[in-house]
# Entry
Amino acid sequence: MRSAIKMVGITKNFSSLVANDKINFELKKGEVHGLLGENGAGKTVLMSILYGLYKADEGEIFVNNKKVQISNPAKAIELGIGMVHQHFMLVPSLTVAENIVLGREPKKNHFFLDVQTAEDGVKTLSDQYGLIVNPKAVVRNLPVGLQQRVEILKALFRGAEILILDEPTSVLTPQEVEGLFTAIRTLKRQNKSVIFISHKLKEICAICDRITVLKKGKVVGTVKTKATTQENLAEMMVGRQVFSTFSKKEFENGKAVFRVEKVKIFDDRKVLAVDEISFEVKEYEILGLAGVEGNGQTDLIEALVGVRKLDSGQIYLNGKPIGNLSAHERIEKGLAKIPEDRQKRGLILDFSVSENLILGRHYKAPFSTTWWRLNSREISAFSDELIQEYSIKTPNRDTSVRHLSGGTQQRVVVAREFSAEPIFIIASQPTRGLDVGATEYVRKKLVEMRNKGCAIFLVSADLDEIVTLSDRIAIIYEGKIVAIKNCNETNEFELGLLMTGGKND
# Structure
């Protein structure tokens, strides 16, 4: 196959940080090429250089074997390069057709948008590539999978022969992922080239022809998908063997540690977000909550941890009602939480590692004296112990957590919450934004706590994570629990169907 893109000796420095170090990368015509690497490996910087968002300090770029200078995204689009970002760049209030032609609108009488021509053109384009979507639909009313199609169509409308897809499956159901893969295969048959960036090894192996792995700004290697395994790729990324399954003690039908009864919650707009939900989490159990984001999960978690009021219903911890208790009082009763956003809800970024490790316990012994003074000796000893036990990569305990990587920040949160020996843990998106190594670590710690008898409520947009860790899985749709399944009696496609309001007959 001929070369579509060739990047030779690409180097990019940010002050003392070498983000890309003499990287060579080639994308062939009609190829789907996977790009893998931990957070900070240099993937996004490399693709930003290709799309004209950054300028390389050294190196050359060739498009269709012709040397080019890509100074901005407009130049990249002119050269036939399109990029679909992880966070979509759509105008929610406009229709599909209006979003796709935005900036290149067909005109009527030289001034007005020719709506019919725009809609006809979009329909022809969507039929051509099998990306079926209603041109007249308003984007804000579309599910995530269809919004992604609109982004791809927008790039194709601008003449893209090369598509960069950044984490394209991160919020899709299994059915939507399969729909995306069908579209990618159609593009490939039409000799388009695709760069597929993802953390999900199973999916990157399912759709890519070749895979390039980056580590610390350098290319570790490029392999043919048929000649490798997920385990080999993970080891290339991290530099050691990575485990995707974990040893769990057999789940027994023990006592219910946490119980939710007919909980109803209205959101900030006074719209019903959670509609009479009931479930229980038992000791030695991980109950996963699966659902497309935006179906009431955030409001439910806020109510369970005590930062949002229940409108009706009750919550019980060890058989005692806690629905009227404050968040602090719930923690005192044995509840721990890994928040959805570690930087906003889990850490005080300008505090040191040691200060964050004692948050919530700083006012009592052994960290505080009878005169409300902090006991620095006890705090230092405690912090050093957790830094070692949880492998927190920090220069020292006095380093501000702001300067730590996302994975290390999450270890600080996990260390603080788990070291309190809770009886119930709410883990909300515990590995969001983490690389393979950090993800493995957090999942392993959750299973360890479960094996000690802790009850865990796991909320994750990553269905693989839910299936891998859970003993039972509750499915939420439009604020209701529509089913609770034993993990060994279901599969991802059944879950995906239930997550979108379908029924499994």
